[in-house]
Specification:
The complex is a heterodimer of chains A (731) and B (170). With 731 residues, chain A is α+β, with helices and mostly antiparallel strands. Chain A is built from 20 helices and 28 strands. Helices cover 44% and strands 12% of the residues of chain B. Chain B contains seven helices and five strands, in the order H-E-E-H-E-E-E-H-H-H-H-H. A five-stranded mixed beta sheet of chain B has the order 2-1-5-3-4, sandwiched between helices. The chains are: A alpha+beta (731), B alpha+beta (170). Chains A and B meet through helix 7, helix 9 and helix 19 of A and helix 2, helix 3, helix 4, helix 5 and helix 6 of B.
Chain lengths: 731, 170
């Protein structure tokens, strides 16, 4: 996804790690039912968006320890496969000295003050930020609770707190071996002041962090009991499915409902400004009813719009004046003065998310309030849109979060929630609105199309003395987080625009070009970094080829200021066996990427059939994500991220014709399948640096490694995704 | 007349055998089994992914064979026994697959995994020692957007070596 705060990180680091008093971070909340409730107040790092305001402590807090000893962690970071429901409680359990299994998890309700993600300023799960944002606050909370429980026990025994320690949910008086369970201590602990400063465990004493603890959500997900948004079942609920105008920006025209009304199980047909929904007893009837409608659409201004029009607009925009993102030395002058000049245009298509769980949302609009059941990455925005549509104040809108059947950035937008509330508002019973797969693909919030120009000047030894990268595309930040879009610069769109490299002269700039209204662009696993990794790593491979140098050593020479990037590159080269040529018929390509606080290098080994079909046989991945919380989850995120990125590299493309999205389902918008999956080897670097993100780096690095491998094998340089097999045909 | 209408209603109802139980369903015969399971019977472990048998998220067993419930109309089922993820743990191959899934930590978002487990269980039940090609053939109809394929392959192999160990343990 994105990391809009990355450039602010350095400036605010010292303030957040040392300057903030612990007292402002932790508060004991009196629990009506007794026990200890610990609220974690999260410092707001930047003034990017929203009002930080004073921190209040409502009855909800992050950690509750009940009188029976049950520890509950209120999860503000949602689970969409990335493992937060394991990594977050691990942070608490480590410091609180309880087993992971002793912690129960609860989805957090919407509350930007209580549950905000300090890296992004509100309650959001995205940008590979969960561990980075909560690495310190959750450990601090766990340690504070432990300290208070130890103090309570020490007071009971009339001994020094220093002579006691905590383990497995008990406080132990070390010299005598006397023990008291947390259950016995919580009421007394709750009366104690929150310690000003708590001592976090030394990393060498970690017994849980850094281990591959089992996923807490796995059992429910192998026996069918896990509840995703789409599994919501509330009394009296009906099912609806919807068709929005297939032309971007179009409206609903006239509708003949007569046939649809005769379908058994159809209850009601609901018209919206730009869509129509059929409510029925079950989805089968709703779909049948929808198909029976005779709809005339008011196609609007974009009825003739096509992908070619969009690309032409981007190409034109590329010649406009740009906003500077990185500028060191004088890249333009240095390129002109170089003996060798390389220029290239790189392009990436619009992409849909196609999360396995199609978009859905269940809503009950009552006279006195509204309930929403949904899996969302932005629960407070879900609440806000439901309030706006219904006219209820926020406190009358309850949002119940659920597991997400894939997020990938799609569930950072609430368009489907807005629409579901508009439908539910017209009936007095709860209604679950489910988008068909066709609706899900044709009304997505798409990853932007990027049209980038890259230039470099090489000296007579082939060394790149200057690097110039112009990014052209729509701005997600301008729409999604307007305060972060400053002076025309979308920091996400240019993130990683010069790769992890040091160039003497470098210019990265940006031109914003939006598609027509109704075609909305949004976050997609690793957006800025993923896009720039493809452009930069493909282009740097071209420079190495022009310089007639080895692509690994060429990159190494540019990584003098980034030892961690160099280390992952060296590791991946070693593990793939770079010193030996690949097997016959196999091409090998490399990429190295910094993003989300992590360093990743990948090697892809590919074969290309006579028909041009690309088969990725093997991927080797080296990662330095700083301190690891759960190595197996990290490995899984690399594996999955690589598959996700491979789908996009090989197949992913959303196109428009006559204002309509041409792709419909998994036939025309293909996903990689098990028979096409490469073997994947992941090598993790043991690091004591602060944790980096792991959800997105794996996706970012794969496409350039594959196109570089194809070029090594066939000599064909592909500068556009998805990979065009027609260009690779040899027979 | 009222009697005739009632008779007509009764005739339109379908009796489905699901997970060892019997369910009378009042819906059109062309209603896909998926929606009967999820919306009328509240068995939400079986997932909707595409509606066109392209992704496998809705896979259930019909007399032990994997079928896509999103394109299986209820009037085509007759007396066949339907088994869903909720009951797959009752058959030995299902137990092995679920156990292997947990041991190998296959799951990420988990949405497609009901279907993956149904396909994998059917494979293992008919072929206790599947090789890579067998796995590709049996599992390529199941899409996973989280990209858990590497581990699905590993877990099926893991499950396939279980019988001997279990038998020895007795």
């Amino acid at each position: 996804m994105f990391d809009p705060l990355v450039s602010h990180e350095v400036g605010t680091k010292s303030k957040t790690s040392r300057g903030v008093s612990r007292r402002t971070m932790l508060t004991v909340v009196s629990a009506a039912s007794g026990g200890l409730l610990l609220g974690v107040s999260l410092p707001y790092l930047t003034a990017t968006a929203g009002a930080a305001g004073e921190d209040s402590f409502a009855p909800n807090a992050f950690i509750r320890i009940a009188r029976d000893g049950q520890v509950t962690l209120i999860m503000n970071q949602v689970e969409m496969g990335q493992g937060t429901y394991t990594s977050m409680p691990m942070l608490v359990a480590e410091e609180l000295e309880v087993d992971l299994a002793q912690i129960e998890l609860e989805h957090a309700p919407p509350d930007d003050k209580l549950y905000r993600n300090p890296r992004l300023g509100f309650q959001v799960t995205g940008g590979s930020t969960s561990v980075r944002a909560f690495w310190k606050p959750l450990r601090t909370a766990g340690a504070a609770a432990r300290t208070m429980l130890i103090s309570a026990a020490a007071a009971t025994w009339d001994v020094e707190a220093a002579s006691c320690h905590a383990a497995k949910g008990e406080v132990i008086h070390t010299p005598s071996g006397r023990k008291l369970t947390y259950a016995r201590l919580v009421d007394q602990a709750a009366k104690l002041p929150v310690p000003d400063d708590v001592v976090l465990k030394d990393r060498k004493d970690f017994t849980l962090i850094g281990t591959s603890a089992k996923r807490t959500d796995a059992t429910a997900k192998v026996n069918g009991t896990a509840e995703f948004g789409i599994d919501t079942n509330v009394p009296g609920m009906k099912i609806a499915t919807v068709a929005a105008c297939p032309v971007i920006g179009g409206k609903l025209g006239s509708v003949d409902e007569s046939n649809a009304k005769t379908v058994k199980g159809v209850i009601k047909i609901v018209r919206l400004d730009d869509a129509i929904a059929v409510i029925a007893d079950h989805m089968g009837a709703a779909k049948k009813g929808l198909e029976a409608l005779v709809i005339t659409w008011d196609e609007g201004a974009s009825a003739a719009f096509s992908t070619a029009d969009m690309v032409r607009q981007l190409e034109d925009a590329s010649a406009r004046s740009a906003v500077v993102a990185i500028n060191q030395g004088d890249a333009v002058k240095a390129i002109s003065a170089s003996p060798t000049r390389i220029d290239a245009v790189y392009q990436m298509p619009l992409l849909a998310h196609a999360a396995m769980e199609p978009m859905n949302c269940t809503v009950h609009v009552r006279k006195d309030g509204c309930d929403v059941w949904v899996g969302t990455q932005v629960i407070t925005r879900a609440q806000a849109t439901a309030a706006a549509v219904t006219g209820f104040p926020l406190d009358k809108v309850k949002v119940h979060n659920r597991f997400l059947g894939g997020g990938f950035g799609r569930r950072l937008d609430v368009d489907g929630i807005t629409q579901a509330v508009q439908i539910a508002k017209q009936v007095d019973y709860p209604v679950k609105v489910i988008w068909t797969r066709e609706e899900d693909i044709q009304h997505d919030v798409y990853r932007p199309y990027y049209y980038d120009t890259l230039s470099a000047g090489l000296d007579d030894k082939g060394h790149p003395v200057a690097f110039n990268h112009r990014v052209v595309g729509s701005s997600i930040l301008a729409r999604w987080l307007p305060p972060a879009f400053k002076n025309g610069l979308d920091r996400d769109a240019v993130e990683g625009g010069a790769g992890p490299y040091s160039f003497d002269n470098v210019l990265v700039d940006y031109v914003r070009q939006e598609p027509p209204a109704g075609l909305t662009t949004g976050w997609w696993r690793g957006v800025g970094v993923t896009h720039n990794a493809f452009m930069v790593e493909g282009f740097v491979d071209e420079l190495a080829a022009a310089a007639r140098q080895d692509p690994v050593s060429y990159r190494r020479a540019l990584l003098g200021k980034s030892p961690r990037a160099k280390a992952v590159l060296d590791l991946v080269a070693d593990k793939v066996g770079w010193d030996k040529p690949p097997p016959a018929g196999i091409g090998r390509g490399v990429s190295v990427v910094f993003g989300f606080g992590s360093y990743v290098a990948q090697m892809a080994e590919v074969s290309v059939g006579k028909d041009g079909r690309v088969r990725v046989q093997r991927v080797v991945c080296a990662l330095d994500c700083g301190q690891m919380i759960n190595p197996d989850t990290i490995k899984a995120q690399m594996e999955g991220g690589i598959i996700f990125g491979l789908t996009a590299a090989l197949y992913g493309e959303i196109t428009l014709k006559n204002g309509r999205i041409e792709q419909r389902n998994f036939d025309s918008y293909q996903a990689l399948r098990i028979n096409e999956a490469p073997t994947i080897e992941v090598h993790l670097i043991d690091s004591k640096e602060d944790p980096g993100g792991i959800g997105e780096p794996g996706t970012a690095a794969i496409a350039p490694a594959v196109v570089n491998a194809i070029c090594a094998l066939t000599g064909k340089r592909l500068r556009q995704l998805p990979i065009d097999t027609a260009q690779l045909k040899s027979a | 007349l009222k009697y005739l209408m009632m008779l007509r209603e009764i005739q339109m109802a379908y009796t489905l055998k699901i997970n060892g139980g019997s369910h009378v369903i009042d819906a059109d015969g062309d209603t896909p089994l998926l929606w009967v399971l999820r919306d009328l019977l509240g068995m939400t472990g079986t997932k909707f992914g595409c509606g066109m048998a392209l992704c496998g998220a809705c896979t259930v067993h019909q007399d032990g064979h994997p079928i896509r419930s999103c394109i299986t109309n209820i009037d085509s089922i007759g007396d066949a026994e339907i088994t869903t993820i909720e009951a797959i743990g009752r058959i030995p191959a299902g137990v092995k697959i679920q156990k292997a899934w947990l041991e190998v930590e296959v799951v990420q978002c988990g949405y497609c995994q009901s279907g993956q487990i149904m396909s994998a269980t059917a494979l293992l039940a008919s072929n206790p020692r599947p090789n890579d090609n067998d796995i590709d053939e049996a599992m390529s109809g199941n899409v996973c957007r989280c990209g858990t394929y590497v581990r699905i392959r590993e877990a099926i192999k893991h499950a396939s070596v279980e019988p001997a160990t279990n038998a020895q343990k007795g």
